[in-house]
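In the design runs reported in the main text, the only information available to the sequence generator was the tokenized backbone. The following block is the verbatim input for one such run; it is reproduced so that readers can re-run the procedure and compare outputs position by position.
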């Protein structure tokens, strides 16, 4: 039995058991949790934000969990809770700030709510329209920390940047000034007011002002500040004086500073130095002192009469004194330093007083405010002036404005004055700026200014007429009385009439001259004005007709002397239907009486006066300026006439229009003359009438038939030769052709003009068939 048990024990394998020593891994997890908790606790205490309390008068615009706290635009905290203060007078905001901001929490740290604000000074907090209101912070400099604050009701004054100058300004009251009001030096902003408060004795207002570093050197101990904002009213029993600055200054307020005229700059200014604010530049005695001489002191008052430029008060008369010789009055005036640019050699002064006439009313405001001194200047002046002589009346409007300047001519002013308006369809498009007599004092020339926006209306076909007063005209057919409206009679004026042709006519040039018609009726139904120049007038008068084929197509409206070139220019008004005739190549010549032994030509001009004839050219482009001829052109005389050139050593007594004779019968005429290109001789141009053109052959000779020839010889005796009585009186050229005629002369052929004929020339009797007359 025993053996069996032993065998059984041997059959079952035996395992050895090892005993383990140490802490079980299960216990590591709680240890890790303890370490993590300790680390989180440390991190919480080292990185946790700083809690502060800021009280506001109201919770409007502040939301818990939403409203941010910012410093220089960067978020440094958030409002976490908003509670009403136990006294119900304010709201306490619990704010969580970042740990880094804790060093900024001093006793003088400032907080304020930034929200959009629209005021007369501008728009503030504009960024909050997108991001919402936020609380701004300005760190303090105190060594003591603090965690409970009272918010400011508005943003504090801006901080002073390095180099800026901080000064104090004293005024009797706040007036229209406020934080942010600009400070100017010669119209340039150099600083601003940043804060204000009552003085310690409550008798004045003390302003804190910053002057930018780059302009701090402009301020010195002699500088004086004056208020350039708001409206000031002063007066006495005689008058009330209202002074205003620009609209911007009225709204925003503002100060200016300068040194009194003639004062040397003082010492440099230190921080917090105090200056007085004067009500105006005159009381600050910083105005520019000038002298103005007047003929009389009537209407002037020392320390009262204002000086105005374009309606703005820029100065005031200070004193009035007689000159030493009692010939005039010297006025000393003070001009706003900001207006120093107005004082140059072009500046003019005059006393503005009310003027009432039938044509205009001016200076009406002076009936209420009293007389004042007006001034005018141009920027062309570059020299500063301090002494002036006042004009006795307002000057003519200056001619330095942009636009179109025209000259209108008339027999008289007829109610037109300076500043009379020019109307088109009852709309004012211009103004008379001046008037004067012409060179021979026979007419009045009115200078008219048309502003740029209306200048395109004025073309060379424009017509002007008087639309004021009463017009009375009479002839054998009756009497015509024409009146305008009562307002036109009273105010005067000039009307513009544009016919259909004006749309296509060229634009009028600067200083173009137009006739001023007496009425609209005279201005209507007329074509454009053309200019035809002649060597002299020689009986040509205003009213002379322009004729084509015997029919009147225009009329001379004006005749003026040319300058600097010699001669005259006739201004001719065409009828509308004749406008197509004034093209390139059109010829003009005067038709006048021609009395000679051969007869009287143009007899009608003796009774009715000269007229101008026209022969249209072949061009396509309309032209408005021409040079007139003294005789008709060759092609007008005949399309088949013969044109020749004679060469002579001198012109002698040959003149344009002289006849060319054959057997003492006129067969042509002189049409012109000129020096040869190299000036060796004179070229004389002839026109042979068509009927007599065959008389001129290649061997034809020409001689001067003018005057009397006298020969004397000891053997031959004296010989006196004269031509016909007509050639003796009028002069001319004779021609002869040999008995054996040469080839017919071609158009433009050149011949020699002899001084006298040879004896055989007059004996030639060639048989030459003439052309039949048309």
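Verbatim output:
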């Amino acid at each position: 039995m025993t053996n069996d048990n032993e065998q059984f024990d041997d059959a079952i394998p035996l395992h050895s058991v090892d005993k383990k020593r140490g802490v079980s891994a299960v216990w590591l997890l709680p240890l890790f949790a303890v370490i993590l908790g300790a680390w989180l606790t440390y991190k919480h205490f080292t990185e946790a934000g700083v809690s502060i309390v800021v009280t506001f008068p109201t919770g409007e615009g502040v939301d818990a969990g939403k409203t941010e706290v910012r410093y220089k635009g960067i978020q440094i905290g958030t409002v976490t809770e908003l509670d009403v203060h136990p006294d119900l007078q304010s709201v306490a905001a619990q704010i969580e700030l970042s740990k880094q901001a804790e060093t900024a929490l001093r006793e003088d740290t400032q907080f304020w709510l930034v929200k959009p604000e629209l005021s007369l000074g501008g728009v503030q907090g504009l960024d909050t329209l997108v991001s919402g209101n936020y609380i701004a912070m300005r760190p303090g400099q105190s060594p003591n920390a603090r965690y409970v604050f009272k918010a400011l009701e508005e943003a504090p004054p801006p901080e002073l940047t390095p180099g800026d100058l901080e000064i104090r300004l004293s005024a009797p009251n706040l007036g229209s000034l406020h934080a942010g009001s600009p400070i100017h030096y010669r119209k340039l902003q150099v600083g601003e007011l940043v804060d204000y408060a009552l003085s310690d004795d409550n008798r004045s207002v003390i302003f804190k002002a910053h002057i930018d570093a780059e302009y701090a050197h402009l301020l010195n101990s002699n500088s004086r500040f004056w208020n350039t904002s708001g409206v000031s009213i002063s007066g006495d029993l005689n008058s009330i004086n209202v002074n205003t600055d620009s609209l911007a200054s009225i709204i925003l307020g503002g100060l200016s500073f300068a040194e009194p005229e003639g004062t040397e700059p003082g010492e440099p200014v230190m921080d917090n130095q105090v200056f007085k604010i004067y009500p105006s530049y005159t009381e600050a005695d910083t105005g520019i002192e000038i002298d103005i001489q007047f003929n009389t002191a009537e209407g002037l008052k020392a320390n009262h009469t204002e000086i105005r430029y374009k309606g703005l008060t820029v100065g005031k008369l200070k004193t009035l004194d007689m000159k030493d010789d009692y010939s005039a009055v010297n006025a000393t005036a003070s001009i706003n330093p900001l207006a120093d640019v107005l004082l140059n050699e072009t500046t003019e002064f005059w006393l503005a007083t009310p003027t009432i006439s039938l044509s205009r009313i001016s200076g009406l405001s002076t009936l209420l405010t009293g007389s004042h001194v007006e001034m005018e200047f141009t920027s062309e002046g570059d020299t500063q002036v301090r002494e002036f002589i006042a004009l006795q009346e307002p000057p003519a409007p200056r001619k330095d404005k942009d636009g179109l300047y025209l000259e209108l001519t008339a027999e008289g002013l007829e109610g037109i004055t300076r500043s009379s308006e020019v109307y088109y369809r009852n709309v004012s498009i211009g103004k008379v700026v001046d008037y004067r007599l012409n060179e021979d004092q026979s007419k009045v020339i009115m200078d008219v200014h048309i502003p740029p926006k209306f200048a395109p209306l004025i073309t060379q076909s424009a017509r002007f007429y008087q639309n004021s007063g009463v017009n009375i005209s009479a002839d054998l057919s009756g009497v015509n009385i024409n009146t305008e409206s009562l307002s036109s009679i009273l105010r005067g004026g000039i009307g513009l009439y544009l016919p259909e042709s004006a749309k296509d006519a060229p634009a009028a040039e600067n200083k173009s001259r137009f006739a001023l018609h007496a009425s609209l009726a005279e201005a209507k139904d007329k074509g454009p004005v053309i200019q035809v120049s002649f060597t002299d007038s020689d009986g040509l008068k205003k009213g002379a007709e322009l004729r084509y084929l015997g029919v009147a197509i225009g009329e001379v409206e004006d005749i003026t002397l040319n300058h600097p070139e010699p001669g005259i220019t006739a201004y001719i008004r065409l009828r509308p239907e004749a406008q197509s005739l004034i093209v390139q190549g059109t010829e003009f010549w005067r038709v006048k009486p021609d009395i000679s032994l051969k007869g009287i030509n143009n007899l009608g001009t003796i009774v009715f006066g000269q007229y101008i004839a026209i022969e249209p050219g072949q061009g396509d482009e309309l032209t408005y300026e021409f040079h007139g001829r003294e005789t008709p052109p060759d092609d007008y005389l005949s399309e088949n006439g013969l044109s020749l050139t004679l060469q002579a050593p001198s012109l002698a007594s040959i003149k344009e229009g002289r006849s060319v004779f054959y057997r003492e019968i006129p067969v042509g005429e002189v049409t012109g003359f000129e020096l040869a290109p190299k000036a060796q001789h004179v070229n004389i141009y002839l026109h042979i009438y068509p009927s007599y053109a065959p008389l001129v052959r290649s061997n034809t000779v020409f001689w001067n038939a003018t005057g009397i020839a006298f020969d004397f010889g000891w053997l031959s005796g004296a010989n006196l030769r004269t031509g016909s009585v007509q050639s003796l009186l009028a002069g001319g050229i004779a021609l002869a052709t040999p008995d054996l005629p040469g080839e017919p002369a071609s158009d433009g052929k050149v011949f020699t003009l002899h001084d006298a004929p040879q004896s055989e020339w007059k004996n030639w009797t060639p048989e030459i068939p003439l052309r039949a007359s048309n």
